[in-house]
Design goal:
Radius of gyration of chain B: 21 Å
Low-confidence stretches of chain A: none
Number of strands of chain A: 18
Order of helices and strands of chain B: EEHEHEEHEHEEEHEHEHEEEEHHEH
Largest sheet of chain A: 13 strands, mixed
Oligomer: heterodimer
Low-confidence stretches of chain B: none
Mean pLDDT of chain B: 92
Radius of gyration of chain A: 22 Å
Shape of chain A: globular
Structural class of chain B: alpha+beta
Distance between the termini of chain B: 11 Å
Number of strands of chain B: 16
Helix content of chain A: 25-40%
Structural class of chain A: alpha+beta
Largest interface: A-B, 68 and 76 residues
Number of helices of chain A: 14
Helix content of chain B: 25-40%
């Protein structure tokens, strides 16, 4: 058995065959997109293949991403396309491959890694844990056509109605501009969870056929037709201000002449829910993604924290696959910044976490829930638990799948 | 009712059954009725009121706003098998009408310990009625409660409530449900979106199937703030609260400049202030914006939805840290 980085001269058809056997068939355009994604990963050396006597039996890739945590961008390795040939499953190949992939992610210095699991036990055994959701909303398009006016109780509400954002169509050449705008939006909103791709990957998305993209100074929208012209599918409507959010939704709403309903990946606490006159938008589903804190001190240092919170608490982390995270740590959060420093061999109250508990905590899962789910132990004290909850509080979401 | 807000219970007037005869609709009867009802709630001393809206404009006009949701999860019942700890005795027993007070006590303790935001507990006569209902099955432990019934013939179980403070009790209550996997195939359950259940399941074969939003009205802002639990954060923020726009609504929402102070003890105060602030530097909220903020809606969302203006990104961050919540309810009414 050989597990190694895929090279440009490897048989990509064999990898495509594995992918279709694992995840379902692809049409010609999806195959083309898949090839271009693979080219990026192979070029970056972040695609692994497993070979048994020269035969391709498995593979996995990760992409270079940035994930926003309380408004700050943290380098994140987005793991995708983890597959083992059906006839070779149950032999422990997946575990060996993912162990190597995790080592590689760590060696390249990523503090975080995220994936959407098809099955969870393997990833849990390597320290990934459920952390946030991808929320699918559905709303009748007519309820987007007359959004609620701004609250008249609030002073300059009338002004917001008249200003419209200057939208322009965006294409592959705008990849970096799109990434920059989305990043600025997440920073301004102090978002937790959403991600941006590298420019090469974003360009591939922007070039997909039959997709429409609009960009303005502080917002971005992307959507396509579904079911002929009956439905519109919204990949993203993101804007930093009321005017931009309304302007982008009005582009979507203009298709209400054809589309009866709109489905959208959405922020569960974003403005859409408050903008419709009636209680029309509903959540149609939530798929949860898993997070791995690969480098605990770096992950804590890189993310944002609420400025109002001060924490000084001891954590005992036990991480078998990334032993550098293990040990007794002092977590301090102050002035919107966090730090994890070695706390020696002292005794006293401490919150005990494995890699999985640490990942779920990082994403805002309350200490009480972690304890109930068996992901945290130790007696840290109710006051420390409450302060830790306040530091990490979030309902993280991602709009993209990978 | 009592509604739980980050570990503390607050008397809450739960509005239900708002109705006008079809042939009398569109003549202002609903608004007059709600105005009168609000006056009653205020004179009854309630600081908060919540409702599930069939239509929203009438409630929004009177200061209610979306503030949380009831989430229904759906998952295959077989996912619940094998979660119980072998040999563990969680002390589960059937509950009947005589246990009403004990059930309310357990629910309150669990929501308090979990520092939940949004769930409610009912008064004893209501709980006694549920416990007497022949169609639903109730189980009680020292720190947990389960209530469910058959749904869709015998295809599914419908779980109204599954709350527990410890992993052992949660697992034991789930295993009561799992025992029905011989007959039922699916489970629908009212859950918190951040429920421990999501982390207890081996595979992600359940998902949120529905989110039914509820609306909140802050009837008495200083009292509602004083009664709510807060995280131990250090927050001092001025707020400009804007009064009602309709002269017909009762003046229970107080127009003017206020100072919100949250301390590291997890308690807050909202007091009138006269200290001059620079125009535009103070966050302005109407009754609707205040209700949504109270429920944990990020200020950036309020701003983008047209429910807040003014303020600074610094004050937004302070308010978000104070009110942060994914508010939910398990009951409707």
């Amino acid at each position: 058995m050989e597990i190694r980085a895929l090279r440009a001269d490897d048989d990509l058809a064999a990898q495509l065959d594995l992918s279709e056997r694992a995840f379902g068939g692809k049409n010609a355009s999806e195959r083309e997109t898949w090839r271009r994604f693979m080219d990026v990963a192979i070029g970056a050396g972040t695609a692994l293949g497993v070979f048994d006597d020269g035969r391709a039996v498995g593979g996995a890739v990760y992409y270079d991403m940035r994930q926003w945590w309380c408004g700050r961008a943290v380098p994140m390795a987005g793991v995708s396309g983890v597959k083992i040939a059906p006839e070779d499953r149950g032999r422990g190949i997946g575990r060996q491959m993912m162990t190597m992939l995790l080592d590689d992610i760590a060696a390249r210095g990523y503090p975080l890694s995220v994936l959407y699991p098809a099955t969870m036990p393997l990833y849990r055994s390597l320290g990934w844990e459920l952390a946030g959701g991808r929320y699918l909303a559905e709303v009748p398009s007519r309820s987007l056509r007359s959004l609620m006016p701004p609250d008249t109780a609030v002073a300059d509400a009338a002004a917001g109605r008249t200003r419209r954002p200057e939208l322009r169509r965006a294409g592959p050449a705008d990849a970096q501009a799109v990434i920059d705008v989305i990043g600025r939006v997440h920073e301004a909103l102090r978002d937790s969870g959403p991600l941006t791709w590298g420019a090469d990957m974003a360009a591939i998305h922007l070039e997909k056929p039959d997709r429409y993209h609009y960009l303005c100074e502080d917002g971005f929208a992307s959507y396509w037709w579904q079911d002929g012209g009956d439905k519109l599918f919204v990949q993203s409507v993101q804007g930093a201000t009321a005017e931009t959010v309304r302007g982008l939704w009005s582009v979507i709403a203009s298709h209400g002449t054809m589309a009866e309903s709109v489905q959208a990946w959405t922020d569960p606490s974003g403005p859409l829910w408050w903008l419709t006159a009636e209680r029309d938008p509903d959540v149609r589903g939530r798929s949860m993604w898993m997070l791995r804190v690969v480098d605990a001190p770096a992950a804590i240092a890189a993310r944002g924290f609420p400025a109002a919170v001060s924490v000084r608490a001891t954590l005992i982390i036990s991480d078998q696959s990334r032993p550098a995270n293990s040990g007794r740590w002092l977590l301090t959060v102050t002035d919107g910044k966090g730090e994890l420093t070695p706390a020696g061999t002292g005794s006293g109250q401490a919150l005990m976490l494995g890699a999985r508990g640490l990942a779920a905590l990082y994403a805002g899962t309350s200490v009480a829930t972690l304890r109930q789910a068996g992901l945290a132990g130790g007696a840290s004290g109710a006051a420390a638990d409450a302060a830790i909850d306040a530091a990490f509080a979030a309902t993280p979401y991602i709009l993209d799948a990978f | 009712m009592r509604q739980w807000w980050l570990g503390r219970e607050i008397p809450m007037a739960g509005v239900a059954g708002v109705k006008v005869a079809p042939e009398y609709r569109g003549r202002g009867a609903g608004r007059a009725l709600m105005t009168e009802l609000t006056t009653l709630m205020v004179s009854g001393g309630y600081a908060l009121s919540a409702l599930y809206a069939a239509t929203m404009p009438i409630y929004r006009q009177q200061g209610w706003e979306l503030a949380g949701a009831r989430y229904t999860a759906k998952f295959p019942i077989r996912s619940l098998r094998g979660l119980d700890e072998p040999g563990a005795d969680a002390g589960i027993r059937r509950a009947g009408p005589a246990d009403a007070a004990a059930v309310i006590d357990v629910l309150g303790r669990v929501h308090g310990l979990a520092r939940d935001c949004g769930p409610v507990t009912f008064a004893e006569p209501v709980v006694r009625d549920w416990l007497a209902n022949q169609d639903s099955f109730c189980y009680l432990a020292a720190d947990g409660f389960l209530r469910y019934q058959w749904h869709g013939g015998d295809e599914e179980l419908y779980v109204d409530k599954l709350v527990a403070a410890s992993a052992r009790t949660t697992r034991a209550l789930l295993s009561v449900l799992a025992s029905h996997s011989s007959v039922a195939s699916g489970v629908l359950a009212h859950v918190s979106p951040a429920d421990q259940l999501w982390w207890l399941l081996r595979e992600q074969d359940g998902a949120i199937a529905e989110r039914y939003s509820w609306m909140l009205r802050i009837l008495d802002a200083p009292a509602a703030i004083a009664a709510r639990g807060f995280p131990p954060v250090d927050v001092e923020v001025p707020l400009l609260l804007r009064g009602e726009t309709s002269p017909r609504t009762p003046l229970v929402f107080t127009d003017g400049l206020w100072q919100l102070s949250v301390s590291s003890t997890g308690k807050a105060r909202l007091v009138r202030t006269t200290s001059p602030a620079l125009p535009g530097t103070v966050l302005e909220l109407g009754a609707r914006g205040l209700a949504a903020l109270y429920g944990g809606t990020p200020v950036a969302t309020l701003r983008r939805a047209g429910l807040a203006t003014g303020g600074t990104s610094e004050s937004d961050a302070l308010l978000d840290a104070a009110f942060a919540a994914s508010s939910f309810m398990l009951d409707d009414f």
